[in-house]
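Why do we care about 3D structure at all? Because function follows from shape, and shape follows, mostly, from sequence. That is the central idea of this module. The next example makes it concrete: a single protein chain, its amino acid sequence, and then its structure expressed as tokens.
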Amino acid sequence: MLQYLLEVLKLTLLKSQAHLAGEAKNIYHYRNWVAHGRNPHKTVSAIAPKVAYTTLASIVEILLANP
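And the structure:
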């Protein structure tokens, strides 16, 4: 569900900064990998907490600026 929402946002509100949607998807995949037991057979790139925060904060700022 989140992936579809990010695709819609990428085509509308995040059009000028579409890379944020891709980064948010990577954060989502990493979060799921950590939360569900860190499967050693799946490779997921690690996301630094500061990068995750700045990416998600940027998306929230864009969403709040466009009611």
